[in-house]
């Protein structure tokens, strides 16, 4: 019965707000929920696992990202279910249950920020906070039919947020209404309320869009027409991202063989290698943060999660220096592609196994 009322989205419910202000604040009247990875003073941050919650004390301070929202006038209504230790993409949790996807009840909600996405999709809150390391906001947003935003690394403070892999960890947010999504972003990014700036170019990554099973007249063509209507045809540029990465990121050669082993479908070899390097660094950082606790407590993990976590614990530091080189070179390559003197955007599809709207069934 409880799950039918809140779709299984919440780990813990409460109402938290700062003293009402006499002045209208940017987020006054809005409610939100937070993924159980954010510290809130007086509450245990559970990391999606009961053994973690059992072995950790209540937080002594509130994460700055959460505090920013409270100070802007929003009311927090609770913490949401997540994949254990943020180490999965399905949104399934053995211990607390899988939140029901309001958009497709017979399919998973996507993870690891599953409860946060479901709380918004089910209209239980106006917006919510999640984290995105490898797509953990973007995937559940797409599966649940709502808006999700992942900012650039470091744009929003991750202080008071349990780390998964800090080379990639970001704080993201969900909303149903694009205007609310924008308001949340202005608060979290500390942006002034100014008129939008027209981009000088918008780059379409052609090879990435070709990976989608959705016909181009429903993706690229719609996007290009919208861009031309808003900003003019001169803004639209095209690129083969895989070729650019191959030419500009020489350290990827260390991962080309592994990339071929992991390659799915027609993903360009250079992007498959990039994925292999990313996963290796992610496992290494996860191990550095959490191996001591995992080996000491030997926690009860759900299927799929357990194998992934123990693989990370057993990982070696081989090729880690090459991973860091790839990251440095990739930043330089994308800066060269996008330009540093103009406002630029690159549009690409997410390279994940399940496309939006086709999430795995239970």
Q: What tags apply to this protein structure?
A:
362 residues, alpha/beta, Amidase signature (AS) enzymes, 2 domains, six-stranded mixed β-sheet, three-stranded parallel β-sheet, 13 helices
Total number of distinct structural domains = 2
CATH architecture of the largest domain: Alpha-Beta Complex
Mind telling me the CATH superfamily name of the largest domain? Amidase signature (AS) domain
Sketch the major β-sheet.
Answer: 6 strands, mixed
Q: Strand share of the residues?
A: 5-15%
Q: Could you report the average pLDDT, rounded to the nearest whole number?
A: 90
Family: Belongs to the amidase family.
Transmembrane segments: 332-351
Keywords: Membrane, Transmembrane, Transmembrane helix
Organism: Gossypium davidsonii
Description:
This protein is an alpha/beta fold and 362 residues long. 37% of the residues lie in helices and 13% in strands. The strands form two sheets. The chain has a six-stranded mixed sheet, sandwiched between helices. A three-stranded parallel sheet has the order 8-7-9. α11 packs across α13. The radius of gyration is 21 Å and the shape is globular. About 5% of the residues have low confidence.
């Amino acid at each position: 019965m409880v799950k039918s009322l809140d779709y299984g989205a919440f780990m813990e419910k409460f109402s938290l707000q700062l003293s009402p202000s006499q002045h209208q604040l940017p987020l006054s009247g809005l409610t939100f929920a937070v993924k159980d990875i954010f510290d809130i003073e007086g509450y245990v941050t559970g990391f999606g696992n009961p053994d973690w919650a059992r072995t950790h004390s209540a937080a002594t301070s509130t994460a700055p990202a959460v505090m920013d929202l409270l100070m802007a006038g929003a009311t927090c209504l609770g913490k949401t279910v997540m994949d254990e230790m943020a180490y999965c993409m399905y949104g399934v949790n053995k211990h607390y249950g899988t939140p029901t996807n309001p958009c497709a009840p017979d399919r998973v909600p996507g993870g690891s920020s599953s409860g946060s996405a479901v709380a918004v999709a089910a209209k239980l809150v106006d917006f919510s906070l999640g984290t995105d390391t490898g797509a953990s906001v973007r995937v559940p947003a797409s599966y649940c039919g709502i808006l999700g935003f992942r900012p650039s690394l470091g744009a929003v403070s991750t202080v008071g947020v349990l780390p998964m892999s800090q080379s990639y960890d970001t704080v993201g947010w969900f909303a149903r209404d694009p205007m609310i999504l924008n308001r949340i972003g202005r608060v979290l990014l500390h942006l002034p309320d100014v008129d939008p700036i027209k981009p000088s170019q918008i780059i379409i990554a052609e090879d990435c869009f070709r990976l989608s099973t959705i016909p181009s007249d429903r993706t690229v063509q719609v996007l290009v027409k919208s861009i031309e209507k808003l900003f003019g045809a001169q803004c639209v540029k095209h690129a083969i991202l895989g070729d650019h990465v191959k030419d500009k990121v020489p350290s990827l050669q260390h991962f080309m063989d592994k990339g071929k082993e992991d390659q799915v479908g027609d993903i360009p070899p250079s992007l498959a290698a990039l994925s292999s390097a990313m996963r290796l660094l992610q496992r290494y950082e996860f191990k550095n943060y959490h191996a001591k606790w995992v080996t000491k407590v030997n926690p009860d993990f759900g299927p799929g999660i357990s194998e992934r976590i123990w693989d990370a614990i057993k990982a070696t530091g081989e090729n880690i220096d090459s991973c860091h080189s790839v990251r440095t070179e990739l930043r330089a390559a994308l800066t060269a592609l996008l330009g540093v003197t103009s406002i630029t955007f690159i549009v690409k599809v997410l390279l994940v196994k399940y496309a939006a709207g086709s999430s795995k069934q239970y």
